[in-house]
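Mods, move this if it's the wrong board.
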Amino acid sequence: MLKHRKMLLLVALLALISVPWLQSKSAQGNNVSPLLFPYNQPSGINYNVTDLTQAWNEWKSNMITANNAGGGNRLRVMGGVDSSSTVSEGQGYGILFASIFDDQNTLDGLWLFTRDHLDPNGLMHWHIGNPGQLRGSYAATDGDEDIALGLVNACVKVRKGVWQPSSNGLDYCGLATTMINNIYTYEVDHPGSSPIAGLPNNPGNELLPGDGWNLTRDYPEGIVNLSYFSPGYFTVFGKFTGKTSEWEAVNSRNYEITNLAQSRPGNCSKLVPNWNQYDGDAQLVSWQPEEYAWWSYDAARFAWRVAVDKAWYNTASSRETMNEVGGFFSSVGIENVQARYRMNGTSVDNYRGVFFVANAAAAIWAAPAAQAVNCGAATGQLKTTPQQAYNMVLATKDSPNSYYVNAWRLMSMLLLTGNFPNIYELANGVTPTSTPLPTNTTVPATSTPRPTNVLPTNTTVPATNTPVPTNVLPTNTTVPTIRPTNTPVPTSAPPTNTPVAGACQISYTINNDWGSGFTADVSIRNNGAAINGWNVAWTFAGNQQITNLWNGVVSQTGQNVSVTSAGWNGSIASGGTASFGFQGTYSGSNPKPSSISLNGTACSVAP
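Not the wrong board. Structure tokens:
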């Protein structure tokens, strides 16, 4: 009887130990292999592993589909521009998540769709409609990076025998090598005249936003999106392909640009803008006439990407950067983090969202010795521990499930819990570096934050994929200037903007015209009462046809064009502005419209 009771007690104890909610920072990886999920590497965070699997399963079921993917086991991630199309960024998220959660069939299916849409440089065209339909041609670097790392993870897992060889005959190792080498060849600006997208007189090793740009023509000062800079990935890429020194140079140069951006006069926050020149100054882009210089939907991802470098390699640059950015957000307080910040630390508006919370939390967690910051919204006292930061990410969720926001929520959850491991180094027996709590300050304890619904129901968060031309042009044809699809557009100008005469002013600017097609930007200035929902209409004088439009919804019948706001950018304050852009085709002449109306009222049109 006593033996029987002991056996029951042992069974009960084993059952209790296996309960998922007891898995925390002290838990070890699964019993099969340290290369399989859950990895549970030391991270200083207490968590429930089922929160991670639930977040993945929800995102997967809502975003990944075989519908209209082309058959043959192909899968695609829907969203980023609209719910009926796919961007390379989303394929990257899906492939990377599948490699982490050991979902080999999903990874294969996503790669098969990706493979169908590679550009001439072996990188994924950034925007796909129906299978084979290019709605945005050439690549965006961030999507390619995440795809490549997912393939590296798959390669290692097959090599180490924890995954079976691909049932679809995919050579993950060869695919990863080719993708990484193509990124280095075409999406890194080397000294001299290569690649074509870059500058001929640059120092070298700057990370380009994609392979279809023309910096010599459009951005002679250079252009870098630092939220694409993934130094932890790049170190892996160098080791994996035997090009360690080459990728180290890329890391060194882009950390240099980071430091230049952080040292600009007035930048007390040590944040970085959405777009930078090679000298660290903010780079003006026409689709973000004000937001280009803010920490916003592009720049915020920089925190997570550098936090990965801190977690994986504990580099001096990553420690310094995370102490600065993490110190700022801890001094703001995770419960106070807003969506967009100027470099002087002031918040642009009162919008709050899990995308920004998730990335701020990554910086707070990764800072080994954060210092209190007194700058704008940061009040000179550290307010948030890494655990409190994670709790806020967990409690803040976009509902219904969203493509972009909840992907980054999951990215943050994985990293902070020790479940976004360096698979390449883990397979080689390298011990990961844990991230301790800050030891230089006393942080007041707070209760677990309450859940926050970060977006209204059915609100779409703009994708931040770097855009490229939407059609493949013949050899030696000038590539049109790149324009993004739906990067958020500021809905109001500063208070210093005073209305001018007339109810509204509209500028219609043709940026590029290559004889059979063109790109144009339309900027709206509202000089009357505030507008909630706008419609811009005009009649083409020629046979122009709009083929792709961003930051709005277009309807065209013959020569008559009607463009309505995209929802998130529908409000224009008195004295405020909004804008959209498009690409079109024509034959013959391409005159500008002589008359354009805003909500039925004729506007003055800039010459």
